[in-house]
What does this fold into?
Amino acid sequence: MTDQANEPTSPPGLRPLLRKVDAVTVRVPDLESGLAFYRDQLGHQLLWRNDEIGQAGLKVPDADTEIVLATGLDYAPSWLVEAADGAARAFVEAGGRVITEPFDIPVGRCTVVADAFGNKLVLLDLSKGLYATDDNGSVSGVEKPGSENPVE
It folds into this structure.
């Protein structure tokens, strides 16, 4: 049992930057073989599929973190932040560095940073919303936060 009174706390007024692990990206040679393994053999439910960018999101049953199968990205966790641009600046101010400048993704913005120890982190925000899908799970657009209407 730990003594919570003696545990270190965040500095006053400093809000944690990393909100949660949004997704873990897993490289696959193609979406069909990735889905055949992770969905059909391991039982993960398809949440969305975007053939245009070579990605598919699968449900992790005990969390809201997704497994993202990707044909063009390496294995990495993606950390959810409030704003990718501000998070990149915060990493630099804290002694880290930006590996990939913030860029647009269909659901928001993304950046790749390194911490003060050289660890690479993928940071993303969902500022544009979440994927809207059709009955087959294919992405049909992006649903803005608080809206039920997909935006192309």
